[in-house]
From TrEMBL:
Superkingdom to which the source organism belongs: Bacteria
UniProt organism field: Citricoccus nitrophenolicus
Name assigned to this protein: Uncharacterized protein
Length: 102
């Protein structure tokens, strides 16, 4: 649920940036440090499936809010391509494992 709220907030911010995906570049979307902190916490506590669920929760929240606002939604490949930008303080092994699970 927290990841969904983060996604909704990100969609609101993108909407305020003239409806563009403010954190999107070259088919990649930066899901934000808040999302990645939640995903890392889930990974360390419960495993890769839960980390993946957090990131999917972000996407669901973002896309639901973006649709309400009439804005573009974010595709899974965009999140997968951009998540490494937001994985701060994560070991190389953790980064690789999270990316492999997406």
């Amino acid at each position: 649920m927290r990841a969904q709220r983060v996604g909704q907030h990100a969609a609101d911010l993108a909407h305020l940036a003239d409806g563009d995906l403010a954190a999107t570049e070259d088919d990649a979307q930066h899901p934000g440090e808040d999302t990645c902190r939640l995903a890392l916490e889930a990974y360390r506590s419960f495993g890769l499936e839960e980390a993946n669920a957090v990131i999917r929760g972000y996407q669901a929240g973002y896309n639901a809010r973006a649709s309400e606002l009439g804005d573009f939604v974010v595709r899974w490949i965009e999140i997968k391509n951009g998540i490494s930008w937001a994985l701060h303080g994560v070991s190389e092994e953790e980064t690789w494992n999270i990316l492999a699970a997406l």
